[in-house]
Predict the 3D structure of the following.
Amino acid sequence: MKIQALAYAVLAVCGLSAASAAEPATKAAPAVPAAAKPASAVPAGGPKAAADTPDAARMRAAEQLTEQQIKSTTNREALSRLAQFYNGRDLQRFIWAMQRLVELYPNSGALRLQLAAVYAGQGDKSSTYDALLKMQNLGFAYSVGNDPRFEKVRGTKVWEYAVANLDANAKPFGEGKVAYQLPAGDRLLEAMAWDATRKQLLVGSAREGAIYRVSADGKLSDFIKPDAASGLYSVLDMKADAANDALWVASYGAPVYKSYTADIVDQSYLLKYSLSSGKLLGKYSIGDKTGHLFAFVAVAGDGRTYVADPARREIYKLDGDKLVLVAANPSLTGISGLTVSADGRNLYFADPALGLFGVDLSTTTPFGIGHSTDSLVVGGVSSLFWYDGSLIVVQDNMVPQRVMRLKLDKDGRNVASAMPLDAAKPEFSLLGNGAVAGNDFYFIVNSQRDLYDSHGVLADAKALEPVKIYKSNLRFAWDQPGISAALKPIPTSAQSKVKFENAQPADKPKADDKQ
């Protein structure tokens, strides 16, 4: 079979009926095929009826793909659908597809767990244990001890070790605690900024299109009132530039906005206000008719301002009174955070599924953030910040949820070490946006956004809770090495494997304990 058949089969499977397609994933994560199913029986009417179906040619092409062909594809979406097609039809090709998906989505714990469960269902202890041990070393915290999918691989010391270490990763870590508790209400407070001049937090409402100041006791006072005429709709992100007395706001006409109308669909603005008075100083948008969604703002030390459109996978720079495209990549799954280094040299952004990336602003050259994929997960990021040579990442879509400090090398392109600041805390339910305040980091730990449906309708007003804002010390364990997350050198022929410095919670079992 020629290699061109791979593209045909993979893309053809994308055109199969809805019954053969994977359900769309939430939170911009890769689609995870359902649990492995037994092979389906021949359709009623016998083989001839099956051969006459509209999808028969596509199915035959998919059924002839080799391991090399499946594992050479880079089309993530098509491969997800191909895996769904194989599930229940062709176990070996399903495993090949899942193995390749894990390679393409190395930050997905759900995919890794699914693959481990498939191995376990076949009684393949070695592959199951290897997958689970890699997951625990990456910091994942899935509870598998009583998972019936792993029944065939229980009862060994390696199994007990893997279960114990995955459970250990679920234990609360860090010294942070709730600093503010904002009053409950139908506001959907999603954006935060720190006013360094007045030493005060500001929060923005996606529901009202209002911005509030937060007092020391957690009370809210009006700062910028709702004003749809100025383009202040749902407040999705804010950044304060105290040196220039500026507050930058990403505003979007979202369905959750109380005054939402057809006139503001897909309208989005970068707004500039006076940080001291709240006066509107500037209103910026893209002059096309295709619609945009500005969701993240970043401000450099010299005042240069950037805004990201995650829906279009684009990042813009404010140049005078115009927004100029800096970077765009349709291959991204989205953009879920934006920040810039203190010297203004590098712009950083997060893809919720694929991890962390940067742009050299002097050349507009993009780059990936180098790190050890054996010891650090950089996906699941919901917001991103800069602090003293480090990236602060909020990983709401990580299991467990956590806030990490990633120290970068001198070039700002590789992670030298990583330290969790707070993880798996009992107050963590749905992590939201945050703000750097000196050596402290404030962030929402119980965002109310899941209480609203896709049409912006609040499902149950009684379920609204006081909004909890956590405070973490950004210099926590500053002099400690943390997780060794740097890229590892290729071992020489004399080395059997690359050695990692991560401490293990328990003694590793011997190889013969796998039997």
Observations:
- Confidence is low (pLDDT under 50) at residues 1-29, 40-44, 490-515.
- The radius of gyration is 25 Å.
- Residues 4-168 form one domain.
- DSSP finds nine helices and 25 strands in the chain.
